[in-house]
Amino acid sequence: MATILREHSEAFVAADRAVTEDLGGGIARQILGYGPDLMVVRVWFDKDAVGEVHAHPHSQSTYVESGRFEVVIDGEKRVLGAGDGFYVAPHLDHGALCLKAGVLIDTFSPAREDFLGRGR
Predict the structure, then answer these.
(1) CA dist 120 to 29, 103, 115, Å?
(2) Average pLDDT over residues 70-82
(3) Does 8 map to a domain?
(4) Which pLDDT does position 6 carry in this prediction?
(5) Tens digits of per-residue pLDDT, 33-67?
(6) Which end of the chain is more exposed for a tag (fewer CB within 10 A), N or C?
(7) Which domain, by its residues, includes 90?
C-alpha cells in the first residue's frame, strides 16, 4: 500500500516529536514545517561534516543558528558563524564544510519534494 504524503505539515511542529533523519557523514535534518511554496529545515552538522557541492531549482536562504561553516556559493567561499546567513539562487552550485559543530536553519521555496520522499 502506498503512503500518501500530505501537501503540507501540521500547523504546529514540536521539535521533540518531529522526525530527525540521519543523513550520514555527521549530518542530520528535521523538517520543521512546509507547504507547497515554503519549507523550513533544521540541519545539524558535526565538526568536519561536508554538505557536498550541489545545485537545485529551489531558492534557499539559510540562517546559521550555531557553529562555524565555510560556505561556497557559485565558487565564492566565506566563513560564517552564529547569527550569519546566506542566500542561494536557484541552480547555483553551493555547499558547506563544518568547521565547528553547529546547526543551520534552511528555508526553501518551493518546498523540497525530494525531502518528503517525492521526486527521488
Answers:
(1) 17, 25, 9
(2) 98
(3) no
(4) 65
(5) 999 999 999 999 999 999 999 999 999 999 999 99
(6) N
(7) 20-116
CA 88 centroid distance within chain: 12
Give a yes or no: residue 36 inside a domain.
yes
- Dig out the grid coordinates for 22 from the structure: 540521519
CATH code, domain with 61: 2.60.120.10
Q: Residue with C-alpha cell 566563513? A: 79
Number of domains in the chain: 1
Q: In the numeric block, which cell numbers belong to residue 57?
A: 531549482
- Residue 69's nearest CA partner among 90, 89, 43, 91 is 43
Q: Is residue 9 part of a domain?
A: no
**113 — alpha (psi -120 to 50), left (phi > 0) or beta?**
alpha
Among 82, 120, 119, 74, smallest CA distance to 104 is for 82
**Residue 56 contacts residue 112 (beta carbons within 8 Å):** yes
SS (HEC) of 95-113: EEEEEEEEEEEEEEECCCH
- Give the integer Cα–Cα distance in Å for 107 and 117: 18
